[in-house]
Every structure is written in C-alpha cells, then in structure tokens.
Amino acid sequence: MYHLALKMLLGDRAKYAMLVGGLTFATMLMTQQSAVFFGLLKWTTSHLSNMRAKIWVVDRNVQQANELKALRDTDVNRVRSVTGVAWAMPIYVTIQSAKLADGNFKPIMLVGLDNTTLVGRPPIMLRGQLEDVRLPNSIILDELGIQRLSVGRAKPLGLGDTFELNDKEARIVGICRADRHFFGYPYAYSTYTQALQFAPKQRKMLSLVLAEPAPGWTAEAAAKQIQLETGMKAYTEDELFWSTIRWYFRNTGIPVAFVSIIVLGFIVGTTISGQTFYAFVHENLRHLGALKAMGASNGLLARMLLVQSFTVGFLGYGIGVLLVTLFGQVVLARGDPPFMLPWQLPAATFAIVMGICAFSALLGIVKVWKVEPAIVFRG
Amino acid sequence: MLLLRQVTFYLAIAGFIGVFLLVRQMQQKPPSPPPAVEPARSPFAASVAATGILEAARENVKIAAPKPALIQKVAVEVGSKVKVGDTIIQLDDRESRARLNTLRAQIEALRAGLKADRVMQADAADQLARAAQLAKANVISVDERKRREFATQNWDARIAKSEADIAAMDAQLQQSQTEVDVLTIRAPRDGTILQVNVRAGEFAGTTPQEPLMILGEVEKLQVRAEVDEQNAPLVEAGRPAVAYLKGDTLRKLPLRFVRIEPFVIPKRSLTGDSAERVDTRVLQIIFELDRPEVPLYVGQQVDVFIERAPTPVAANPTTSPAKQ
Questions:
Q1: How many CB atoms lie within 10 A of CB A312?
Q2: pTM of the model
Q3: Given A81, A118, A212, which is nearest B49 (Cβ)?
Q4: What pLDDT, in 10s, does the model give residues A117-127?
Q5: B-chain residues near A83 (CB < 8 A)
Q6: ipTM of the assembly?
Q7: Testing the interface with A: which of B11, B21, B22 to mutate, by most A Cβ within 10 A?
Q8: Domain coordinates of chain A in residue numbers?
C-alpha cells in the first residue's frame, strides 16, 4: 500500500515538484540565512580565531573583543606575577589606514605581537616566513588585505612590496590567512614595538594580554585568579566568545533582521507545502475514497499520507541542504559573505521541516478521515 | 523501489551527505599555534614579574660638560678602558689659553718694572745714606736730607705696590689655569667607555638630550628590575630571582638580590620617547649576576621573575587547581 502511496505522489509530477520545491525553498531560506547570520556573528569574534590564546586579560569594563580599553605597560608583568599563569604576552590592536602609491587608502587592523614569542600570531602562513616579522618596518598582511590594497595595480602586492602606514613605510614580508573581521578590516601583523612605531602616540598603548594557565590549572581557575589578584578582567577563550556574541545580540539590530527572514522562511515553507499537500489530497480524494471503499482503514490511509508527506519532506530538505552546501562551499572558498554552519542548524531545520510535513499531513488526514467512500461513485 | 528511480532522491541523499561533511568541516578548529619561541616562564611556584635592564655593576656614569663649549678632541673610543684622571674629552680652550698667555706676559712686564723699581730704590737708599752723612757735617740742609728720605720711602712703597700687583696677577693666572684645566674632561673613575655620543667639532651643552659619553664597568653587571607599584608589597628583600634575555628564553640567568631602591620612580617608557606621559610608578630592585657564557651587553632588556610567598588561591567550587 505504501508503494501505492508513493506512486500516487510521483504520478502527478507538477504537484510533486511543487511540494518538494516548496520545502526545498523553505529549508534553504532558513538554513542559509541562519548560516549567514551565524557567520556574521562569528566575524565579530575574529580576534579570537586570529589570535589564539586560552586566557584573554582586558580592562575590567571590557565586554567584547572589538571594544578594548588600553591597559598600562606594566600590567603585563602584573598578570605574569599571578599564581597559575604560565606566561603572559602583550598585544596591541589598532585600526590604521594604509595609504597606497596612488593616494587611495584602506583601513587595516594592525596587531602587534610580542617581539620574542610572537604569541597571537596568524595560524596559517601562505607565503613568507613568520620570523621575518621581526625585521624592521615589516608587516604580515592577510589575503583580504592583499586583495584590497592591490586594487588598481597591474600585479597584486607580493613579498617585499611596500605601502604607507600612518606616514611610515611598511614592507610586506608575509601573507597569512586570517578570519574576516566584522567591520571588514583586513588583519596586518607586526611586532609589538613595531606596531607602536606605526601607530600614533597615545598615553596607554597595551590593548590586551594573552595568557596561558600554568600546568595543573584550568583556564577558568587561572582567569579567576588573575581577576582576584590584578582586578583586571580575565576571560577564557569561550567566555569572551559568548560575551562578544551576547553583546551584539543586545546592542545591534542584526539578530532581529535575520530572525525575521528566518521566520518568513518558515511561514512561506509552511504555507506553500501545507496548501499544496492539501490540494494534492483534495485532488486524490476520489482515489483515497476508492481505497476506503475497498476496505482500507482510516489508520492505513493516514499512514499512507504520512509516508507521502515525509517522503516529500526528506527530499525537499535534502535538496535544500544540498543547495546550502553548494552555497557554503562557494562562500567558504571566497571568504565572503559570512557563513557558519554549526550542527544544530541543519538539525533544527530538519525538525522544523518535519514539523511542517506533519502539519500538512494532518490537514490531509482530517480530510480523508471525514471522506465518504461513496464519493467515488459521485460526479 | 519506486523512489530509487527518482533523480530527486539522489539529490536529497547528496544533500544529506553534503551537509554532514560541511558541518564536520566547519567544526574543525585549527589548533592554536604554539608560540614561535618558548615564552619565559617563572621557575618559582609564585613570583613577581618585572622588566629589567642590564647595567654596569656600579651605575653607569653619564659624562657631562662642565661648561658649554665646542669639543676640540675626543680622546677615547667606544670600548676604551680608562683610568681615573685620563683625559677623555678636550673642550675648546684656545680662548682660555690666550688669556693665560696674556696674563703671563703681563706678569713678566710687572716683574721687569719691579726690577727697575728696586734699582731706583737702591739708588735712592744710597743717596739717602750719603745725604745723611753730609747732613751730619752740615754740608747739606735738613730739607735736602728729608727729600732724600722721602724719595727712599716712595720707592719702597712703589716696590710694595708692584709686588702686590704681581701677586694679584698671579692669582688671575691661577684662575685662568683652572679655567683651562676645566675644559679638559677627565675620567672620574676607572672603567670602560660604553657609548660616545659626540665628535670633535660638535657643541657640548650643559643640559644635553643625551650624555656626551657613558662610562661604566662591564666586568660585573647588575640588573635593575622594575616592578609595578601595585605589586611592590609582594617584593621581599633577599629573595632569589631569574632573568631571561629578550629573544632568548631558554637560558635563564640566576640573580642574587642586592638591594631595593628606597625611592619609587615614574616608569620610564620603553618606547624611548622623551615626551611620553607616565602614570605608573615602579619600584626598582637591584640584582647582581655573574657574567654567563652568552654575550651580555649593558642596556639589554630582560624579563625578571622574583620569587615570592604564594598568595591565597581563589576558591573555585567547580574546578580546583591541582597545585598550590
């Protein structure tokens, strides 16, 4: 009988395409938009993925990674003095504008790494040697920076090329891969002292301190100890990640914009597939009536409808996520627009799609339940 | 199975597999890269961290000019070993020497004048002696004798004046000599010239931006460690410490406590900019160290860890640290 149900479903190609297409569209809209939304949120934490450290020590009022209040130079040593800290290194983060030979300028995110240990360094070097960053006036630029600064040049910027950074010459000694920043600024790395030379003078220039817990200490315990002994705020990597994301939820309209699109996807998906399935059931009411007349129970008919509905659901969802996967692969290769797909997202979409299918099936079942077998013989 | 003949079925399966792989791919977080060089770690259970600078065992001497003048000659080079009293810089002393010569000539002239006066005085004295005899014999008048007597006294007074003039001129000569001597800058003590910032022909002011020269002893070095004033209570006298050179965090240099500077000073900025404003004060602690095999240079920066008594650890209900 289930074979018959599938035959019934596949028999009407137009309706079948409509049903699957509707769910595909709903799946794609929900998953892809959510993925872009999560990707955008993840961009707000690009500092964390580009400067990896277990503990982040910042001013006590700092709530998120992109708004840093400068610390005093000696605060590095205060963190180092805390029991439970294996080492602590300074980082200077600043936005500077890079000027090109043709007068064009682009803002870049300049990160100053500790001269000796280069803690916070970019994880993936594409070209050049990381150690060369210690040479005078040198800088490691990320791919995005190369792309941005190369606009209008016959040949893209390469190792050894120079540009102007805050009236000082900066030489590219390496190209790295870094996660995009929320504001779209490319990352540039130099040593801490070199970054201080590039940046205009300020009273306090230390942005944050990266630390590692001592052996036998968890990051949480060490962070707590730092807060106790220094009065500065110490986040573990995860804490700062979620604190940053919460900050954007509370303080920006981005979540509202995306959630409305996702809700829209849900409504459109539900309406299209519900309506179409209902119409499909309605159209096949005669056949179902005939089955009923032949002695099929209501329960069997309901199960047949559920098989039809969930088949459509599986196919629609599968094709939907296939399109999302293709989109995701293209986007990840390009690095833009943002894209982030945690496992919860396809799982949640799957649950929602199955819910839509169940709802549509329910509409049909109600209809079939009430149908008189005699309908076959009418009109 | 009917479904197996459908293209859509395979597309959907591909979708399931695709999204599964994509999620797996996105879950992979690249491992955090290890530091390029092993960071300096404290060998003590609890320590106070500080930034230190290597200096000569006795503090470096910043050589200054006694008075603003042009530099005539720089007598030493960087690395020269000097003994106390050796000439290191000769300032322009032409003017002073010229004045010295003038004074010498003037003294000669005065001495010559004195000599002439003495002759005249002898002549007057002789005439007076003779006049006295003649006066006894009443050959010449008393008036005549008196005139001779006054002439003698006059010459005596003139000689006294000339001698006083010579003494005054001598004093002036000595002053000029001192002025000439002052223009020669001498090593205030034994040591090695660590830095030479001036060259012959340059002007040496009395308040220069940088010292003319730096003199120090490099055989024995000491570390001046600076601790943030907020950590000052943690520092105890007599505790051992270790230092790591910047850029060489594997070799640790053991330090012996010498003293705590009793005066807390504003932190000197490590960016080296003179216009920098400071809002932090630092406690300075002096440690001595033996010269290790690695080359050490005066003025190098070091990371210092000073042992301290452990502080109470924050009570953590969920995660308790294994140590302490």
A1: 30
A2: 0.73
A3: A81
A4: 899 888 889 99
A5: 45-46, 310-311, 313, 324
A6: 0.80
A7: B22
A8: 2-43+253-377, 72-231
